[in-house]
Amino acid sequence: MAILRIGIATCDKFPDLSADDQSFSTELVRLRAEAIPAIWDDENVAWANFSCVVIRSCWDYHRKPKEFLAWLDLLEQNNVNVWNPVAALRGNMRKTYLQDLQARGVAVVPTEFLNRGDDAALADILARRNWKSVVVKPDISASSFQTRLVARENAGTAQNYFRELLNSSGVMVQPFLPEVAMSGEWSFVFIDGEFSHAALKRPKAGDFRVQDDFGGSQVLRTPPPSLLQNAVSIAERIPKPWLYARVDGVELDGVFTLMELELIEPSLFLLLEPRSAERLARATLRKASR
């Protein structure tokens, strides 16, 4: 039986993979497959030579979305076996997908979406929505890229930033949720359609960002059954097939409220749950064998 060659797509900042993805790679090798890191925008990579390509730490795609979309087109044109599938990746790039989920009955954090080039005043949005402070970011974003927390009293001085952001991209404005700091933000990890584990994330004192880069923390937690049921319901809305998904949200008045549904390059917190890397590896080999 031929050895399966699994391409793990990463970025040039992590040519040898992130620590999480290294655990995934180790499990693939233990299961008698080849695990080959490949930088997604390296023109010398022969993607069609892999049994399948798993999109992982492509953590710069939001900085060059046109190039990323062109790469997805290339994979599709060459019939590369990609996970998650190219259609899912395209649909998940712009966070306007939250509007579609909300229209289908999912509880979503209230969001004001603006198109690139719109003429809008941030102060007007806060006044109309009666929001005391907001988180502003591009609608194609990751790792808090170009993201700011703006209080109502500072909206005027933040207008230049807001205008510059609108000149370069679509923009989303959401109310700041103190629950993220107080109770934490949940990340529910799903592998091959099944719930695997959950992490509870918190920002460091005085910050609003939960990512490692900004001092945030993540711990493995068993979620309350009601929140897990809500997360499962959201995951079930993702068109199949898919390999992994991360459902991020916060509990508001007892209801799990979606912040993001990540299908492109989320950290899956594999190092927090010892069995999860093997789960992902086995699921990947199933996809590669089809």
The Rg value, from CA coordinates, equals: 19 Å
Spans where pLDDT lies below 50 across 5 or more residues: none
| Approximate strand percentage | 25-35%
Helix/strand order, N-terminal first: EHEEHEHHEHEEHEHEEEHEEH
Q: Give the overall silhouette.
A: globular
Strand order of the largest sheet: 11-10-9-12-13
User: How does the helix and strand content classify structurally?
Assistant: alpha+beta
Helix content: 25-40%
Please give a structural write-up.
- The chain is an alpha+beta fold.
- Helix content is about 30%, strand content about 25%.
- The protein contains nine helices and 13 strands.
- It has helices spanning about 20-30, 65-75, 85-95, 95-105, 120-130, 160-170, 180, 225-235, 275-290, and strands at about 5-10, 35-40, 50-55, 80-85, 110-115, 135-140, 150, 170-175, 185-190, 195-200, 215-220, 245-250, 255-260.
- The chain has a five-stranded antiparallel sheet with strand order 11-10-9-12-13. A four-stranded parallel sheet has the order 2-1-3-4, with helices on one face. Strands 5-8-6-7 form a four-stranded antiparallel sheet, covered by helices on one side.
- It is globular, with a radius of gyration of 19 Å.
- The model has no long low-confidence stretch (mean pLDDT about 90).
